[in-house]
Amino acid sequence: MFTGRRLIIATKHKKEQVIAPLLEAALGVTCFTDTSFDTDLLGTFSGDIKREQDPISTARLKCLKAMELNNCDLGIASEGSFGAHPTLFFASADDEFLIFIDKKKDLEISVRELSTKTNFNGRAIKNEKDLLEFAELVKFPSHALILKKSETDTQHQIKGISSIKALKEAFQYLIKKHKTVFAETDMRAMHNPMRMDVIEAATKKLVVKIKTYCPTCNTPGFGVTDLKKGLPCDLCNMPTQSTLSLIYSCLKCKTAKEKLYPNNKTTEAPMYCDFCNP
Question: What is the β-pairing status of strands 6-9 and 74-84?
Fold first, then answer.
């Protein structure tokens, strides 16, 4: 279905470094990018351009636009978000969405990778000592930094800082100009190896989903579309909020199958039970 076809990776941030090898090996496609397509126009992490849509809608728009500009019927795009983990208190998360679109076969296959593997952080900086402590905390210089006047003011921000010399120079420039400096991690993929690892993990997940075929009509992308909670408590046997089963369904014929106990356990510990541990 895909062998020998050209596939556009909609990115200007070097994501093809981890996406292309996996797709080419698994699907037999030839990947390429178009650096003239400015994906930043759909939103930036640094806040200078606001993202107008949710991550999956933005990834879809990015992918379709790149396909249109390059007259290509096969494409892939990713979109990430960073912030507090939805269930783990005090943990930051990298939430990556990856979408694969085949106009020729009328397919759209997407995956999500939610990971705590991130250095996402930001801090108001008063002096060089604070700056260097923050830089060490977030794995600088292998992971780049952004400096700006304040968390919300992007007028004179300096991105992609990846050397001590450049970091100190940027700090001195901003502190003299504005008297205040805010430092944050540069979350663009080419400046953040931890994020690139999460994108790679999402791509591996996507490959598995693409190569999983519907048992009824043989369409690629037979994957999880829903889940059921209610794994019984090991002590009182009442339903918990933990996952009981996953629902797999087809993108075309709507065939659905339920897989019980996806986490390889048939009961949940009482500490996670709302009745035993309210």
Answer: parallel
pLDDT computed for residue 48 by the predictor = 77
Angle at Cα 201 formed by Cα 54 and Cα 261, nearest 5°?
A: 90
Structure tokens at 123: 């801090």
Estimate to the nearest angstrom the gap between the alpha carbon of 6 and the chain centroid: 24
Q: What is the 3-state secondary structure (H, E, C) of 98-165?
A: EEEEECCCCEEEEEEEEECCCCCCEEEECCHHHHHHHHHHCCCCCCCEEEECCCCCCCCCEEEECCHH
- pLDDT of 33: 97
Tell which CATH architecture fits domain 122-186. Answer: 2-Layer Sandwich (3.30)
pLDDT in tens, 72-127: 999 999 999 998 888 787 889 999 999 999 999 999 999 999 999 999 999 999 99
Would you state the pLDDT for residue 210? 96
DSSP conformation letters of 248-273:
EE-SSS--EEEEE-TTS-SSB-GGG-
pLDDT on residue 188: 95
pLDDT for residue 45 is more than 90: no
Domain boundaries 6-118+193-211, CATH class: alpha beta
On whether the CB atoms of residues 225 and 259 are closer than 8 A, the answer is: no
CA-CA distance, 219 to 213, in Å (whole number)?
A: 5
Domain ranges of the chain: 6-118+193-211, 122-186, 214-278
266 phi and psi, to 5 degrees? -100, -10
Share of the chain above pLDDT 90, in %: 86
Q: What angle do CA 221, 222, 228 make, to 5 degrees?
A: 130
Answer yes or no: are the C-beta atoms of 108 and 74 closer than 8 Å.
no
